[in-house]
């Protein structure tokens, strides 16, 4: 035992020896969390706290589970891991369901419990034809979509109008939330969800008729089994005395509930995770019993909340959040004497005062131009009415967002700060548009050139960072209708208490979802998706919905964002009869109006002053049911725990709520990376608001600085990566190709990298490309095997009944299905005497004989494989004398080599075991770190791996972070966590690369460096001689004014050339802007004469 503990640091030892009760390990990247978890398992066995069979360890990938087993076997000097229960969630649930189905636990209702209450049987798990048996098949995504399409055809639902994959996605989400088909119909809102509600029950019927489950069923039905059969739950609670969970922050609702049920008896839960994923304790919260300190508030306590339109009511606290915080605090005072201290990110309700005589220095954003700084009066008088100065400016400039940098008492003061911010950060003051009536020296052409040639986004991001401004919360947003503009705005308005109607049962105003635009292409997309739009005024359309609980709009917002990633979410609330914007405390400004509690009612007050101070200690927040606000120190504030997303990583933040006596241990010493890499990653993740305060450190020394490289395009990116790999190998002869990894955000980025590696004749492998088990020929063979193992699997049978061709079309299949139903038999059991034409009858009969003989066979698995392949003639059919055919045959033969590993098992269990493990295999599980090849993989695939040299390519805005995340706080934080994961994969050297322009998805566009690069302190970045050089540009022999010929567009005249593009006026096709790297131009010896 001493030997086991000698290899651990003090915090790891503390975690290993904390054997009793709930334990939460907050583990930083590379801090040895797997080592800690496996050492704890070994410690429990060595100290005889538990036998191996009494310990359950659960993780997310088969690779991680396999690594745990190997480590535990090594620590305990065991030759076998069979006694341990170490697996993925899906594997665990699959085994439980098969065992309980075999023993009949699911087939009868359990007895009454001691209270005399009767517990009903779980739905959708009856025995017999149409139900689930222990030899069920686990469907992959393609088979699931096939089943969805079948249902849609039966129900006459248009497959073009409603995407089957989208319907499947909604069903999957419902299952992960443990929502059964019958319950889903009650919860569905909106046209599309009502379509899903029709498909979901029939989809489940088809699965069960085929004795099949999908991945989400494995978890959902296991949880339902435990919830409805207390005797079964008790058996597994008694069995597993100690439960360990890796990557706990990634658990969804079904996984979370599964673990919670299993540990309810012994409470010995040990979870490991990295959660990098408010208000001080003395803040007074208004409750039904008066004011109480927030640190004393508990769940279910009734607190006073705004209920809309100046009204208030009592609502329950559902979550109390608590964490340690070190950083800035803001103290906000109002004119009527109210005062609150808060973290800068806490959400308040605020609006610009309509009578403000102040002047605003603002930062303005236009998607066509970028950012600029300017001045606006608080109030503008048009002669007819008073109007907000920001609104007037925004409309004049056709801008999308505005932030107030400074509130000034006079115009001269405002002019000073306009110059100050502009000169300090290099953001222009020039207007975006030279509108008619303006007296300007600039022509519009020069304005366009100015904003095209200055990177205002990079400069504005630094300004916003210094002033604690959040891009998601502008002080002013225009409407979503822009019929006269070339790129209509896309703004979702989520207005809390936007619907003024109240009821006796629900005495609060509902939240209104409204989406209005003039973008007709987006309208068509939404209509096809099932989100029905309505005609609105001024050539626009809209979607409008209301709900008493804002969280119910989660899936609707996600659906719109999926179709339009650039959509802006504008959150506001009618706290009084005036509308207030959601604003972080750091966005509040003097003279803004906020809602406060005074004389037992909600009224309005103006902010007088805001001061900043440093703070270190605990901070708290609350989540409130339905209305998501509460009154703190007299201010009506939003609860920051709540979000439109409801992200799963909050499970780890709420661990102490579920287990109040939990021990929390932080592993902060990193064993993988150098200090420079850790510090760089820490600087990136520090911008996330939802994270625990951990400080990673290492004994590995400072190491090499992070290399940041700009190249011209994706081709140069690949060439540079290869150059660096070869250079590092020349410096260190021990460095192998498998010590290098190239990480990217999307699979599409691998194309250019692969081309460069092929050109350089370097070995590489893609982790996350087309999976072996996703290839058609492999799926065909597996379908043969599934039919043998599961007679009711009609989905697999339909796939192979005509492979090789046997003359079976849709009509013959329908006849077979009808005959099987009449006989109350699965189709596979009537093939020997099929009621079809003579020719088809003979061939189908042969197939039926092969299946019947295989089911009765007692041979091992590899011999069974040979028999099926030989008798069906499948390999001969694949052999079409082409290279592709030969490759497919090799793949099928490779499958046999996998099956041979199961020959040691008894014949009756070999096939089901093989099929189950194949169903649950993941692509990352095929990673072999001994193979000498450069690794290419997505950042999502990299978690849990480590490499000496890591290249993160495509570090560009709208690529990483992805475009659909940049306007959503939760999604952006997830992208930042992903960046942190990627950076901390590196042991020796980290490279970050970005391009000046990139060809992706068929379009070449200019690029801006990722904001994550900007987060890294300059002292951590390696300075090279090339830092100040411009990227090499492809040589363009022509100059402005020359005539050229293009392969596709013909003859044209060069109008302009810059670093990114060539502008040419073609005779037949007009003016075209061509990417400089992709412009195959031939200069012509002709002149204008």
UniProtKB/TrEMBL annotation:
A GO cellular component annotation in the UniProt record: DNA helicase complex
GO BP annotations, alphabetical order: intein-mediated protein splicing; recombinational repair; response to radiation
Residue ranges of every copy of the UvrD-like helicase C-terminal domain listed in the record: 675-944
Recorded superkingdom: Bacteria
Keyword Coiled coil part of the UniProt annotation: no
GO MF annotation, one: ATP hydrolysis activity
Reactions accelerated catalytically: ATP + H2O = ADP + phosphate + H(+); Couples ATP hydrolysis with the unwinding of duplex DNA by translocating in the 3'-5' direction
Binding site for ATP: 27-34
Family of this protein: Belongs to the helicase family. UvrD subfamily.
Matching NCBIfam families: intein_Cterm (TIGR01443), intein_Nterm (TIGR01445)
Designated name of the protein: DNA 3'-5' helicase
Species this chain originates from: candidate division Kazan bacterium GW2011_GWA1_44_22
């Amino acid at each position: 035992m001493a030997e086991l503990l000698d290899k651990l640091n003090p915090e790891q030892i503390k975690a290993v020896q904390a054997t009793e009760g709930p334990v939460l390990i907050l583990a930083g990247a590379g801090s040895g969390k797997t080592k800690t978890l496996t050492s704890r398992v070994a410690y429990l066995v060595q100290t005889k706290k538990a036998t191996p069979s009494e310990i359950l360890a659960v993780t997310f990938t088969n690779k991680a589970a396999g690594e745990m087993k190997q480590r535990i076997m090594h620590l305990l000097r065991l030759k076998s891991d069979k006694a341990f229960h170490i697996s993925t969630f899906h594997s665990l649930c699959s085994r439980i369901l098969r065992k309980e189905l075999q023993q009949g636990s699911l087939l009868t209702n359990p007895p009454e419990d001691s209270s005399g209450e009767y517990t009903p049987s779980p739905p959708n798990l009856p025995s017999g034809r149409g139900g689930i048996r222990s030899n069920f098949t686990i469907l992959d995504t393609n088979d699931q979509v096939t089943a969805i399409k079948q249902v849609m055809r039966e129900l006459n639902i248009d497959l073009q109008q409603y995407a089957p994959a989208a319907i499947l996605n909604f069903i999957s989400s419902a299952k992960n939330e443990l929502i059964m088909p019958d319950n889903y119909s009650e919860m569905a809102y909106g046209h599309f969800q009502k379509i899903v509600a029709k498909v979901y029950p029939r989809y489940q019927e088809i699965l069960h008729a085929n004795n099949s489950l999908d991945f989400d069923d494995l978890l959902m039905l296991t949880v339902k089994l435990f919830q409805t059969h207390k005797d079964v739950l008790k058996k597994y609670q008694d069995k597993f005395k100690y439960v360990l969970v890796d990557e706990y922050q990634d658990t969804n609702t079904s996984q979370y509930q599964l673990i919670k049920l299993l540990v309810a008896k012994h409470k010995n839960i040990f979870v490991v995770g990295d959660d990098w994923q408010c208000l001080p304790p003395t803040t007074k919260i208004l409750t039904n019993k008066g004011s109480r300190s927030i640190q004393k508030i508990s769940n279910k306590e009734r607190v006073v909340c705004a209920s809309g339109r100046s009204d208030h009511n009592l609502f329950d606290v559902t979550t109390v959040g608590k964490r340690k915080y070190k950083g800035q605090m803001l103290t906000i005072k109002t004119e009527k004497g109210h005062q609150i201290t808060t973290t800068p990110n806490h959400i308040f309700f605020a609006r610009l005062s309509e009578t403000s005589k102040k002047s605003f220095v603002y930062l303005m954003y236009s998607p066509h131009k970028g950012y600029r700084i300017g001045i606006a009066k608080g109030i503008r008088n048009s002669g007819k009415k008073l109007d907000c100065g920001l609104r007037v400016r925004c409309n004049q400039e056709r801008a999308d967002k505005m932030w107030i940098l400074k509130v000034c008492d006079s115009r001269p003061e405002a002019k000073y700060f306009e110059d100050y911010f502009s000169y300090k950060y290099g953001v222009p003051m020039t207007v975006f548009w030279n509108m008619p009536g303006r007296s300007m020296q600039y022509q519009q052409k020069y304005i366009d050139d100015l904003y095209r040639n200055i990177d205002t986004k990079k400069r504005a991001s630094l300004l916003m960072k210094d002033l604690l401004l959040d891009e998601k919360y502008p002080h002013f947003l225009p409407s979503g209708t822009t019929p006269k503009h070339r790129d209509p705005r896309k703004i979702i308005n989520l207005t809390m208490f936007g619907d003024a109607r109240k009821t006796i049962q629900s005495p609060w105003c509902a939240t209104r979802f409204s989406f209005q635009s003039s973008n007709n292409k987006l309208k068509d997309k939404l209509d096809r998706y099932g989100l029905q739009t309505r005609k609105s005024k001024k050539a626009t359309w809209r979607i409008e919905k209301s709900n008493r609980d804002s969280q119910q709009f989660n899936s609707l917002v996600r659906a719109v964002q999926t179709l339009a990633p650039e959509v802006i979410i504008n959150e506001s609330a009618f706290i009084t009869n005036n509308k207030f914007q959601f604003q972080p405390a750091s966005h509040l400004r003097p003279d803004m109006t906020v809602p406060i509690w005074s004389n037992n009612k909600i009224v309005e007050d103006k902010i007088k002053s805001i001061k900043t101070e440093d703070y270190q200690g605990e901070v708290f927040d609350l989540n409130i049911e339905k209305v998501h606000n509460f009154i703190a120190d007299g201010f009506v504030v939003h609860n920051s725990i709540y979000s439109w997303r409801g992200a799963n990583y909050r499970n780890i933040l709420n661990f102490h709520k579920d287990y109040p006596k939990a021990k929390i241990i932080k592993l902060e010493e990193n064993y993988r990376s150098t200090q420079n890499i850790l510090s760089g990653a820490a600087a990136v993740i520090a911008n996330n608001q939802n994270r625990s305060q951990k400080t990673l450190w290492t004994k590995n020394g400072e190491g090499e600085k992070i290399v940041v490289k700009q190249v011209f395009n994706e081709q140069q990116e690949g060439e540079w990566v290869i150059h660096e790999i070869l250079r590092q190998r020349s410096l260190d002869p021990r460095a192998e190709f498998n010590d290098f990894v190239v990480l990217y955000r999307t699979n599409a980025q691998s194309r250019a990298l692969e081309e460069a590696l092929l050109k350089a004749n370097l070995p590489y492998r893609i982790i996350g490309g087309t999976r072996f088990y996703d290839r058609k020929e492999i799926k065909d063979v597996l379908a043969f095997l599934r039919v043998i193992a599961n007679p009711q699997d009609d989905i697999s049978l339909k796939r192979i009944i005509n492979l090789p061709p046997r003359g079976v079309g849709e009509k013959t299949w329908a006849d077979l299905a009808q005959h099987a139903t009449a006989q109350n038999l699965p189709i596979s059991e009537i093939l020997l005497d099929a009621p079809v034409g003579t020719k088809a009858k003979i061939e189908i009969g042969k197939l039926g004989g092969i299946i019947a003989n295989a089911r009765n066979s007692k041979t091992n698995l590899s011999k069974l494989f040979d028999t099926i392949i030989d008798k069906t003639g499948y390999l001969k059919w694949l052999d079409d004398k082409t290279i592709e055919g030969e490759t497919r045959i090799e793949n099928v033969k490779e499958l046999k080599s996998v099956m041979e590993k199961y020959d040691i098992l008894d014949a009756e269990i070999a096939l089901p075991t093989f099929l189950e493990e194949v169903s649950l295999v993941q692509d990352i599980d095929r990673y072999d770190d001994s193979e000498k090849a450069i690794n290419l993989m997505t950042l999502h695939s990299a978690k849990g791996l480590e490499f000496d040299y890591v290249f993160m390519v495509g570090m560009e805005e709208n690529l990483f972070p992805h475009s659909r995340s940049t306007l959503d706080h939760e999604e952006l934080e997830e992208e930042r966590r992903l960046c942190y994961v990627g950076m901390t994969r590196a042991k020796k050297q980290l490279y970050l690369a970005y391009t000046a322009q990139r060809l992706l998805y068929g379009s070449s566009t200019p690029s801006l460096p990722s904001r994550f690069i900007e987060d890294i302190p300059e002292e951590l970045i390696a300075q090279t001689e090339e830092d100040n050089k411009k990227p090499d540009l492809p040589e363009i022999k022509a100059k402005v004014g020359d005539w050229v010929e293009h392969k596709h567009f013909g003859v044209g005249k060069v109008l302009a050339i810059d670093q990114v593009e060539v502008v040419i006026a073609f005779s037949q096709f007009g003016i075209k802007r061509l990417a400089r790297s992709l412009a195959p131009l031939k200069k012509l010896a002709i002149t204008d004469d």
